[in-house]
UniProtKB/TrEMBL annotation:
InterPro entries: Thioredoxin-like_fold, Thioredoxin-like_sf, THIRX-like_proc
Disulfide bonds: 12-15
Protein name: Thioredoxin family protein
Source species, domain of life: Bacteria
Keyword check for Disulfide bond: yes
Keyword Disulfide bond in record: yes
Protein species of origin: Aureibaculum marinum
Length: 78
């Protein structure tokens, strides 16, 4: 079953780093997932997130305000 991953962030360096880490984990581990970048501040506010970047997996906020390690992302996706 394909996961829906959203990266909430306005395009800051940390947000870009998180996108890179998540993309690498998904491709390196052949995980079926859709990665969506959410940069619209109104859309981000709907998640009630004040610190970006935030990682949302299947509509659950898993990480906010920091860039996770690859292992951490892999654990969240498994």
């Amino acid at each position: 079953m394909s996961k829906v991953i959203k990266i909430l962030g306005t395009g800051c360096p940390k947000c870009q780093s998180m996108t890179g880490v998540v993309s690498e984990v998904v491709s390196e581990n052949n995980i079926e997932a859709t990665i969506e970048k959410v940069e619209d501040i109104m859309e981000i506010m709907k998640y009630n997130v004040m610190t970006t970047p935030a990682l949302v997996i299947d509509d659950v906020i898993t990480i906010k305000g920091r860039v996770p390690s690859k292992d951490e992302v892999l654990n969240l996706l498994n």
